[in-house]
Structures are given as structure tokens and as C-alpha cells.
Amino acid sequence: MAGTKFAYVRNFELPDSVIPSVYLVVRIDGKGFHKFSASHSFLKPNDPAALELMNESARYVMASLKGHISLAFGESDEYSFLLRKSTTLYNRRNSKITTHIVSLFTSAYVFNWNRFFPDTPLKMPPSFDGRMVVYPNEQVVRDYFSWRQADTHINNLYNTTFWALVLQGGLTEQEATKRLEGTVSAEKHEILHEQFGINYDRLEAMFRKGTTLVWTHAQAQTIGGGIDAEEDDASDAEQAKPVLTNAKDEKLRIKIQAKRAAKQAKKQEKKERKNLTGVLRTLHCDIIGDEFWTPAASEAVSTAAPASVPASALTSATSSRWESSIGDSEKTATEATVADGGMTSSRPWKDPARLQVAGLGTSVFLD
Ligand SMILES: [Mg+2]
């Protein structure tokens, strides 16, 4: 094969591996989703079922590439995936990684459609494009995600006000566009509050903050300490006093022991890493400030959100299409705080576990 006269065409394939030790972000974006969302009657300004379908597709990507992707952030019809700087996935080839993520995401989106939209048949094949951007350090990575979350806020505030003017205020879309032209954010808050009695800050966190997915501790308390530490102490003491009288043998013994200790440490590290990436959390929280990114001491994560939303919960919720008209958002948010498990699980984005954020950044910047 390699020796055929046609083999030279391989020389046209250019290498596209990304340099080592830098963070890779792959951002996927819905293609023509304006039309797609209209033809499937997505709720305005936000359709929680559509957003949950995006989240579920992203969870599938993260589970499929566990160990390679540490964080993802999604809003509207886009999702960004952060790959570890040490990842060797596809030898760090840009095109392979990007296309694989786009493909995983898109197929999961189609595969799960019926669970999230049981009463709405899929009318056309959705598609997503993707791009990879390389970021050199943690600060730029944080700034990248801050940029996306700031974008979420700006778009959501605009859309919420726009659709309030149209759906509740009776304006045409053109009139609403004109009304909002040149308004700053304070004015939009004011329109919402004065005209429609909507307190923007009390709307769903998923709409205002987007969705952050992060691998985190399975059982943080198992990291370090415990029996392993005691064993280490014992072997340290043992190593201190010579065991063998022959100096040469003793030297060899110490060498073997050191090797064994190093092996043990490596094993322990692997175990810790496994624990650190054990549970996939779904969050609707602020990722611009420090709270999310600051590692917690060694506190166990109390409740872990399920990696996947139970289909039964979604079916019951979607039968009413997760009514999310602007008017009752505040009411349901209030209800959710006193709601039982059924209420929160049928509206997974209201799960209190999704709003606990402190110290999760510890998992994000693993090599
Ligand atoms: Mg798009």
C-alpha cells in the first residue's frame, strides 16, 4: 500500500497537533438554531428542556472523554469544553479532537431528543460546528470562561426584557427591538421591574448563569491521611535505623525501599486523581468570581448531583413543557426552595445541589 504511486498524496495532510502543556478549549455552537428552535417551538426567552438537552449532551461528551476534559460551560446553543493541558487525546491533534467532540455532542443531542421533548418529533437534523482555541495559562482560561458567562448574562437580560415586552407588553418584535435600542443594563432591569414586576435576579439560575459541568471529588475525605499515612510513618521509622550489618547490603536495601516508596506514592497519586475526577457535577453558579475556583481545604462534597437526569423525571416534567413563562418564574423559584424531592427532580435545574459551588475549582486545573 505504502509503496503505490498514489501514496504521495499523504504528504498533503498537514500535521495539526497542538503544542504540549497548554489548555485546549473546544467550543461547539448550534448551526442555524434560530430556525431550529422556531420550528420546534422552543419556549421564549428560555426553554429549560432545550437547555437540559444541551446539558445532557455535554455530560455525555464529558463522560466519554473522562480524564481529558475537566470543565465545560454551556449557554443557549453553545458549549465550551476545557481539556487538560496534559491530555494526549489523539496526540493533541486539533481536527481529530474538535470533530470528535462535535460528533459526540450532536449524536447525544439527537439520541436524547425524545426524553426531553416527548411530545415534539424531531423535524430536522440539528448540527453543530466547533473550533479549538489554545490558552497558555490558568488566568487566560478563567478569563475565557468569564467572557462566556458575561455573554450569557448580557444575552439573557436582553432576551428576557425583549420577550416580556412582546409576550406580556403586547409589542411587536420590531417595536421591542426599537424600545431596547441603546438601553443599558440598568434600564432593562427597570423595564422588567416597573412594567412587568419581574425581579431579574430571582429568575432561574440556569438562565442567568448558564451551566457549568465539572469533575469533582468522589469522596474528598479519602484523599490523603488514613491508613496509608500510618503505613508511611512506620516505614519512615523503619528506614531510619540500619537493618543489615553489611554497609553495601544496607545501601541496596535502602535503595529498594526508596523505590518501593516511590511506587507506593505513585499509586496513591493515581488513586487520589481517580477520586478527584469521580463525580460529574452540574452547576448553575457564578464562575467569574474566585469562589468557584478556590480549592476547598479537604471538605467532602455533601451531595452529588446525578451525572445524568433520570428519564422518568424528565418525562413527567416535559409533559407540561416545563412552562417557564416569565410571569411564573419567580413563583416557581420560591416554590422550589420549599419543594420536596419530586418537585426539584422534575425540574433538575432547581436542584439545590446545582447551586453549591464553594471550592470546586480544585478539580479544574489538574494537569
Ligand atoms: Mg448558534
From TrEMBL:
The keyword DNA-binding does not apply. GO terms for molecular function: GTP binding; magnesium ion binding; tRNA guanylyltransferase activity. Residues 140-288 form the Thg1 C-terminal domain. Residues 7-136 form the tRNAHis guanylyltransferase catalytic domain. InterPro entries: Thg1_C_dom, tRNAHis_GuaTrfase_cat, tRNAHis_GuaTrfase_Thg1, tRNAHis_GuaTrfase_Thg1_sf. Binds 2 magnesium ions per subunit. One of its GO terms (biological process) is tRNA modification. GTP binds at D29, G30, K31, G32, F33, H34, S76, D77. It is an enzyme of class 2 (transferase). Residues 244-275 form a coiled coil. Keywords: Coiled coil, GTP-binding, Magnesium, Metal-binding, Nucleotide-binding, Nucleotidyltransferase, Transferase, tRNA processing. Residues 315-350 are annotated as: Disordered. Its EC number is 2.7.7.79. Pfam families: Thg1, Thg1C. Its cofactor is Mg(2+). Gene3D superfamilies: 3.30.70.3000. Mg(2+) 2 binds at D29, D77. Mg(2+) 1 binds at D29, G30, D77. Belongs to the tRNA(His) guanylyltransferase family. This is tRNA(His) guanylyltransferase. It comes from Pseudozyma hubeiensis (strain SY62) (Yeast).
